């Protein structure tokens, strides 16, 4: 037979699409023609596959070989098609039974020595294969644990091309890889390590309970970074669907930690202030990769020294934060990534960043004003909670007073508050208070009018926008959930308003 076919998967973002790999052998000048919008890496796969086949002990067919990747209109990127190309070529050449690879989905890069190397994006590729009804996938041994996370699919792990050839020829069978026990997640930093900062600890608890964005400002050493790093530990452990979603993003990005195929804890991303727009949101040349915002999906994106980021880079976050997803377009196609993350900004109060606070500041009013203006108003308007942290006092540092609550105690309150919100929002598709649209908030869950007196005065005086008032109401509901109340009262609205209007840079 001179025609053979098998299957692989092409990725666009975290969405996979089945790719049929067809190989036809014909008379003519020996050579290889590869069609179907391959990128440079896929075109180079012909040389890798040829060397791997020869070094495995098989012979490369000296005929005219036409390789088609369908659908032809879909761009094909990456080295994950190597294994499928090799199997289809050998089947078309008669080295393997003609239909031996027909129903298989093959993923993996080939080394010149015939070894099968791990590739990015195996989890979303196997998920796509399962949705398409394929029952068996062959993956590199290094990706087997990741692929085995998908239920209903038999995962075969290949270490070399020779292993696959032996399996397809019937000489031996590749063993099915079974999903092993997941390692326990690494312990999260404890909130009890934070010295003092009662207001900061309260803000982090409220942010965790309602999914609110947070802006922390204060002098160096006040604990801004420590508080941000402890926020993921207060969030609930991801359920299986969410964990697969987060793991798929990190699989495409190539940032899965070794030995931990499933990410069950909310992720924490903290890019440096020199990060480019593509590094923060996503992009890059060739295959489109998720940025820090996407990798923080269902977790926390922490931007330390926020005013040092280019203003245009920060402003690219505005629309993705509102929509919960980002679409990156290129001439050859586009990719969509989910990015429903909590944003935490941290900043010093002024350029000199005196550890003693305002009393020792050497900046002029103009310098302080310019420093504050690096964060645009529309971005700040999307931040629900704004907290100014004072310098840590000697008494707090020496341990005077009651010991701070540990993460476990605060996380229990957060879990109870999220449970109350979930019960209230049941049937809406919403999970936390920060996601509730303003119209739905006012019509379905109105706050009693007497409790809104302070907020209405702030709106009349121009201290709040209408969107800002909606955000105050969302935080009020979170405070009520934390307190175990069924409806926010005046104290909840006052506290939410204080967190909204608190001075964030002097």
From TrEMBL:
The lineage of its organism: Bacteria, Bacillati, Actinomycetota, Actinomycetes, Geodermatophilales. This is Magnesium chelatase family protein. Residues 210-393 form the AAA+ ATPase domain. It comes from Geodermatophilus normandii. Coiled coil: none annotated. GO terms for molecular function: ATP binding. PANTHER family: COMPETENCE PROTEIN COMM, MAGNESIUM-CHELATASE SUBUNIT CHLI. Gene3D superfamilies: 3.30.230.10, P-loop containing nucleotide triphosphate hydrolases. Belongs to the Mg-chelatase subunits D/I family. ComM subfamily. It holds the Pfam family ChlI. NCBIfam families: YifB family Mg chelatase-like AAA ATPase (TIGR00368).
